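Hi there,

I know you've been waiting on this one. I reran it after we fixed the sequence typo, so this is the corrected version. Both the input and the resulting structure follow.
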Amino acid sequence: MTLAPFVRIVAQGKGRARSLTQSEATEAMSLILSGKAAPEAVGALLMVLRLRGETDAEIAGFTAALRASTTPLPIADLDWPSYAAGRTRGAPLFLLSAKLVVQAGYSVTMHGWNSHQSAAADLREALGALQLDGGGLSYQPLEALSPAAFDLLKLRDTFGLRSCINTVLRMWNPARARASVQGVFHPSYRGLQSRAAALLGDQNLTVIKGGGGEFERNPAKEAAVFGVRNGVELNQTAPALLTDARRLHEPSSPVDLAALWTGSQDDAFAEATVIGTAALALWTVGAADTLASASSIAESLWQSRHPHSRRAG
Protein backbone atom coordinates (compact mmCIF):
# COMPACT_ATOMS: atom_id res chain seq x y z
CA MET A 1 0.00 0.00 0.00
CA THR A 2 1.13 3.57 -0.70
CA LEU A 3 0.55 6.81 1.17
CA ALA A 4 -1.14 8.37 -1.88
CA PRO A 5 -4.76 7.73 -0.74
CA PHE A 6 -4.11 9.59 2.52
CA VAL A 7 -2.41 12.50 0.75
CA ARG A 8 -5.40 12.68 -1.60
CA ILE A 9 -7.84 12.84 1.31
CA VAL A 10 -6.22 15.88 2.89
CA ALA A 11 -5.02 17.69 -0.24
CA GLN A 12 -7.44 17.10 -3.10
CA GLY A 13 -8.77 20.64 -3.15
CA LYS A 14 -11.16 23.14 -1.62
CA GLY A 15 -14.52 21.62 -0.81
CA ARG A 16 -13.27 18.07 -1.35
CA ALA A 17 -10.38 17.67 1.07
CA ARG A 18 -11.14 16.52 4.60
CA SER A 19 -9.32 15.52 7.76
CA LEU A 20 -8.16 11.96 8.33
CA THR A 21 -10.22 9.86 10.68
CA GLN A 22 -8.43 8.41 13.67
CA SER A 23 -8.19 4.99 12.06
CA GLU A 24 -6.95 6.50 8.76
CA ALA A 25 -4.32 8.49 10.66
CA THR A 26 -3.18 5.33 12.43
CA GLU A 27 -2.89 3.50 9.12
CA ALA A 28 -1.01 6.38 7.47
CA MET A 29 1.52 6.77 10.28
CA SER A 30 2.02 3.02 10.51
CA LEU A 31 2.97 3.03 6.84
CA ILE A 32 5.34 5.97 7.34
CA LEU A 33 7.06 4.39 10.34
CA SER A 34 7.48 1.12 8.44
CA GLY A 35 9.73 2.91 5.96
CA LYS A 36 7.59 1.80 3.01
CA ALA A 37 6.14 5.21 2.14
CA ALA A 38 7.70 7.32 -0.62
CA PRO A 39 9.58 10.26 0.94
CA GLU A 40 7.81 12.70 -1.39
CA ALA A 41 4.43 11.47 -0.11
CA VAL A 42 5.58 11.72 3.51
CA GLY A 43 6.64 15.32 2.97
CA ALA A 44 3.41 16.16 1.17
CA LEU A 45 1.22 14.74 3.93
CA LEU A 46 3.14 16.33 6.78
CA MET A 47 3.27 19.76 5.17
CA VAL A 48 -0.42 19.81 4.21
CA LEU A 49 -1.26 19.05 7.82
CA ARG A 50 1.25 21.68 8.95
CA LEU A 51 -0.48 24.26 6.76
CA ARG A 52 -4.03 23.65 7.96
CA GLY A 53 -3.33 22.30 11.44
CA GLU A 54 -3.84 18.77 12.75
CA THR A 55 -7.10 17.58 14.31
CA ASP A 56 -7.57 15.74 17.59
CA ALA A 57 -8.36 12.51 15.74
CA GLU A 58 -5.27 12.79 13.52
CA ILE A 59 -2.93 13.31 16.46
CA ALA A 60 -4.58 10.45 18.34
CA GLY A 61 -4.25 8.14 15.34
CA PHE A 62 -0.63 9.06 14.67
CA THR A 63 0.20 8.52 18.35
CA ALA A 64 -1.52 5.15 18.39
CA ALA A 65 0.63 4.08 15.42
CA LEU A 66 3.84 5.19 17.13
CA ARG A 67 2.91 3.36 20.31
CA ALA A 68 2.19 0.20 18.35
CA SER A 69 5.43 0.40 16.35
CA THR A 70 7.80 0.34 19.33
CA THR A 71 8.60 -2.12 22.08
CA PRO A 72 7.25 -0.67 25.33
CA LEU A 73 9.70 0.29 28.04
CA PRO A 74 9.30 -1.03 31.60
CA ILE A 75 6.17 0.53 33.06
CA ALA A 76 6.71 3.77 34.97
CA ASP A 77 4.49 5.93 37.15
CA LEU A 78 5.08 9.14 35.20
CA ASP A 79 5.97 9.82 31.57
CA TRP A 80 8.01 13.00 31.02
CA PRO A 81 8.85 13.89 27.39
CA SER A 82 11.58 16.44 26.57
CA TYR A 83 11.65 17.69 22.99
CA ALA A 84 12.37 21.42 23.37
CA ALA A 85 14.60 23.22 20.91
CA GLY A 86 16.09 26.69 20.86
CA ARG A 87 19.08 28.68 22.03
CA THR A 88 17.29 30.77 24.67
CA ARG A 89 16.82 28.03 27.28
CA GLY A 90 18.91 27.92 30.41
CA ALA A 91 19.58 25.05 32.80
CA PRO A 92 16.90 22.29 32.71
CA LEU A 93 15.41 23.05 36.13
CA PHE A 94 12.66 20.52 35.50
CA LEU A 95 15.24 17.78 36.09
CA LEU A 96 15.28 18.72 39.76
CA SER A 97 11.47 18.68 39.73
CA ALA A 98 11.58 15.13 38.40
CA LYS A 99 14.06 14.26 41.14
CA LEU A 100 11.55 15.46 43.74
CA VAL A 101 8.86 13.26 42.19
CA VAL A 102 11.24 10.30 42.46
CA GLN A 103 11.98 11.17 46.07
CA ALA A 104 8.24 11.09 46.71
CA GLY A 105 8.40 7.41 45.70
CA TYR A 106 7.38 7.44 42.04
CA SER A 107 9.26 6.22 38.98
CA VAL A 108 9.75 8.71 36.14
CA THR A 109 10.71 7.90 32.55
CA MET A 110 12.00 10.75 30.42
CA HIS A 111 12.54 10.47 26.68
CA GLY A 112 13.49 12.94 24.02
CA TRP A 113 15.85 14.76 21.74
CA ASN A 114 16.80 18.43 21.88
CA SER A 115 18.43 20.65 19.29
CA HIS A 116 19.95 24.11 18.93
CA GLN A 117 20.59 24.47 22.65
CA SER A 118 23.46 25.94 24.61
CA ALA A 119 25.73 23.76 26.71
CA ALA A 120 23.99 25.03 29.86
CA ALA A 121 20.64 23.74 28.58
CA ASP A 122 21.90 20.31 27.49
CA LEU A 123 19.60 17.81 29.18
CA ARG A 124 21.76 14.75 28.61
CA GLU A 125 24.86 16.45 29.94
CA ALA A 126 22.96 17.57 33.02
CA LEU A 127 21.66 14.06 33.63
CA GLY A 128 25.20 12.72 33.61
CA ALA A 129 26.65 15.51 35.73
CA LEU A 130 23.95 15.12 38.38
CA GLN A 131 23.95 11.31 38.11
CA LEU A 132 20.17 11.38 37.86
CA ASP A 133 19.72 8.49 35.43
CA GLY A 134 18.80 5.62 37.73
CA GLY A 135 17.20 5.15 41.13
CA GLY A 136 13.68 5.72 39.84
CA LEU A 137 14.50 8.21 37.08
CA SER A 138 15.49 7.06 33.61
CA TYR A 139 16.12 8.83 30.32
CA GLN A 140 15.70 7.22 26.91
CA PRO A 141 17.03 8.95 23.76
CA LEU A 142 14.63 9.11 20.83
CA GLU A 143 17.19 7.90 18.30
CA ALA A 144 17.53 4.64 20.23
CA LEU A 145 13.84 4.19 21.03
CA SER A 146 12.57 4.77 17.50
CA PRO A 147 15.01 5.52 14.68
CA ALA A 148 12.03 5.92 12.32
CA ALA A 149 10.44 8.60 14.51
CA PHE A 150 13.82 10.28 14.88
CA ASP A 151 14.15 10.46 11.10
CA LEU A 152 10.71 12.11 10.91
CA LEU A 153 11.68 14.66 13.54
CA LYS A 154 14.90 15.46 11.67
CA LEU A 155 12.86 16.34 8.57
CA ARG A 156 12.57 19.77 10.17
CA ASP A 157 16.08 20.37 8.81
CA THR A 158 14.71 19.69 5.32
CA PHE A 159 11.39 21.52 5.57
CA GLY A 160 12.50 24.38 7.76
CA LEU A 161 9.27 23.80 9.68
CA ARG A 162 8.08 21.59 12.53
CA SER A 163 5.54 18.90 11.77
CA CYS A 164 2.96 16.92 13.71
CA ILE A 165 5.68 14.50 14.84
CA ASN A 166 6.71 17.07 17.45
CA THR A 167 3.27 16.76 19.04
CA VAL A 168 3.06 12.99 18.58
CA LEU A 169 6.37 12.43 20.37
CA ARG A 170 5.08 14.33 23.39
CA MET A 171 1.95 12.14 23.35
CA TRP A 172 3.88 8.90 22.90
CA ASN A 173 4.33 7.62 26.49
CA PRO A 174 6.66 4.71 25.56
CA ALA A 175 6.76 3.46 29.17
CA ARG A 176 2.97 3.07 29.29
CA ALA A 177 2.93 5.23 32.40
CA ARG A 178 -0.43 5.82 34.02
CA ALA A 179 0.23 9.57 34.01
CA SER A 180 2.05 11.99 31.75
CA VAL A 181 3.20 15.60 31.79
CA GLN A 182 3.75 17.60 28.62
CA GLY A 183 5.06 21.06 27.85
CA VAL A 184 4.19 22.97 24.68
CA PHE A 185 5.62 26.10 23.09
CA HIS A 186 2.45 27.20 21.28
CA PRO A 187 -0.55 27.60 23.63
CA SER A 188 -3.08 26.26 21.10
CA TYR A 189 -1.55 22.78 21.38
CA ARG A 190 -2.55 22.41 25.04
CA GLY A 191 -6.17 21.71 24.20
CA LEU A 192 -5.29 19.67 21.11
CA GLN A 193 -3.10 17.30 23.12
CA SER A 194 -5.67 17.04 25.91
CA ARG A 195 -8.45 16.09 23.52
CA ALA A 196 -6.24 13.64 21.62
CA ALA A 197 -5.31 12.00 24.92
CA ALA A 198 -8.99 11.58 25.73
CA LEU A 199 -9.55 9.89 22.35
CA LEU A 200 -6.69 7.49 23.14
CA GLY A 201 -8.19 6.65 26.52
CA ASP A 202 -5.33 8.20 28.49
CA GLN A 203 -6.47 8.86 32.03
CA ASN A 204 -4.09 11.38 33.61
CA LEU A 205 -2.26 14.12 31.74
CA THR A 206 -1.16 17.68 32.47
CA VAL A 207 -0.20 20.06 29.66
CA ILE A 208 1.20 23.56 30.16
CA LYS A 209 2.96 26.19 28.09
CA GLY A 210 6.51 25.73 29.33
CA GLY A 211 9.90 27.28 28.77
CA GLY A 212 10.97 26.37 25.24
CA GLY A 213 8.23 23.75 25.14
CA GLU A 214 9.46 21.82 28.19
CA PHE A 215 7.21 20.86 31.10
CA GLU A 216 8.55 23.63 33.31
CA ARG A 217 6.34 26.38 34.71
CA ASN A 218 7.23 30.02 35.15
CA PRO A 219 6.47 30.77 38.82
CA ALA A 220 5.93 34.47 38.11
CA LYS A 221 3.02 33.81 35.76
CA GLU A 222 -0.45 32.37 36.11
CA ALA A 223 -0.45 28.97 34.40
CA ALA A 224 -3.26 27.65 32.25
CA VAL A 225 -3.44 23.92 32.99
CA PHE A 226 -4.96 21.54 30.46
CA GLY A 227 -5.14 17.76 30.32
CA VAL A 228 -7.28 14.95 31.70
CA ARG A 229 -7.89 13.68 35.23
CA ASN A 230 -9.29 10.21 35.56
CA GLY A 231 -10.35 10.45 31.93
CA VAL A 232 -12.19 13.77 32.34
CA GLU A 233 -10.91 16.78 30.40
CA LEU A 234 -9.14 19.33 32.58
CA ASN A 235 -8.99 23.10 32.09
CA GLN A 236 -8.08 25.28 35.05
CA THR A 237 -5.68 27.96 36.19
CA ALA A 238 -2.78 27.74 38.61
CA PRO A 239 -1.99 31.08 40.30
CA ALA A 240 1.41 32.73 40.06
CA LEU A 241 3.78 31.73 42.84
CA LEU A 242 5.91 34.89 42.87
CA THR A 243 5.51 38.57 42.09
CA ASP A 244 8.97 38.64 40.54
CA ALA A 245 8.69 39.56 36.86
CA ARG A 246 11.93 37.85 35.85
CA ARG A 247 12.00 35.69 32.74
CA LEU A 248 12.04 31.94 33.26
CA HIS A 249 15.56 31.66 31.87
CA GLU A 250 17.33 34.97 32.39
CA PRO A 251 20.80 35.02 30.77
CA SER A 252 22.04 37.40 33.46
CA SER A 253 21.05 34.91 36.20
CA PRO A 254 22.50 31.51 35.18
CA VAL A 255 21.65 28.56 37.40
CA ASP A 256 23.99 25.75 38.40
CA LEU A 257 21.72 22.75 38.96
CA ALA A 258 24.05 20.92 41.32
CA ALA A 259 24.69 24.06 43.37
CA LEU A 260 20.98 24.83 43.55
CA TRP A 261 20.26 21.30 44.75
CA THR A 262 22.94 21.32 47.45
CA GLY A 263 22.02 24.82 48.56
CA SER A 264 25.34 26.43 47.70
CA GLN A 265 23.48 28.62 45.18
CA ASP A 266 20.58 30.68 46.47
CA ASP A 267 18.03 31.58 43.80
CA ALA A 268 14.44 32.00 44.96
CA PHE A 269 13.10 32.20 41.39
CA ALA A 270 14.80 28.98 40.31
CA GLU A 271 13.64 27.21 43.48
CA ALA A 272 10.06 28.32 42.86
CA THR A 273 10.35 27.00 39.29
CA VAL A 274 11.48 23.59 40.55
CA ILE A 275 8.85 23.39 43.29
CA GLY A 276 6.00 24.67 41.11
CA THR A 277 6.83 22.23 38.31
CA ALA A 278 7.17 19.34 40.75
CA ALA A 279 3.79 20.21 42.28
CA LEU A 280 2.08 19.89 38.90
CA ALA A 281 3.84 16.57 38.26
CA LEU A 282 2.95 15.20 41.71
CA TRP A 283 -0.66 16.23 41.24
CA THR A 284 -0.71 14.49 37.85
CA VAL A 285 0.67 11.21 39.18
CA GLY A 286 -1.86 11.18 42.03
CA ALA A 287 0.30 12.12 45.02
CA ALA A 288 -2.43 14.59 46.02
CA ASP A 289 -6.05 15.26 45.06
CA THR A 290 -5.54 19.00 44.61
CA LEU A 291 -2.78 21.18 43.24
CA ALA A 292 -2.61 23.05 46.54
CA SER A 293 -1.91 19.83 48.42
CA ALA A 294 0.64 18.77 45.81
CA SER A 295 2.34 22.14 46.21
CA SER A 296 2.71 21.53 49.94
CA ILE A 297 4.26 18.12 49.25
CA ALA A 298 6.67 19.61 46.71
CA GLU A 299 7.70 22.36 49.10
CA SER A 300 8.34 19.82 51.86
CA LEU A 301 10.37 17.60 49.55
CA TRP A 302 12.48 20.56 48.47
CA GLN A 303 13.12 21.71 52.01
CA SER A 304 14.18 18.24 53.17
CA ARG A 305 15.85 17.01 49.97
CA HIS A 306 16.68 13.66 51.55
CA PRO A 307 16.29 10.25 49.88
CA HIS A 308 12.95 8.52 50.18
CA SER A 309 12.35 4.84 49.67
CA ARG A 310 10.36 3.83 46.65
CA ARG A 311 6.63 3.68 47.18
CA ALA A 312 5.44 0.12 47.75
CA GLY A 313 3.20 -1.32 45.09
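Quick highlight: The chain has two domains: 4-69, 78-304.

Best,
R. S.
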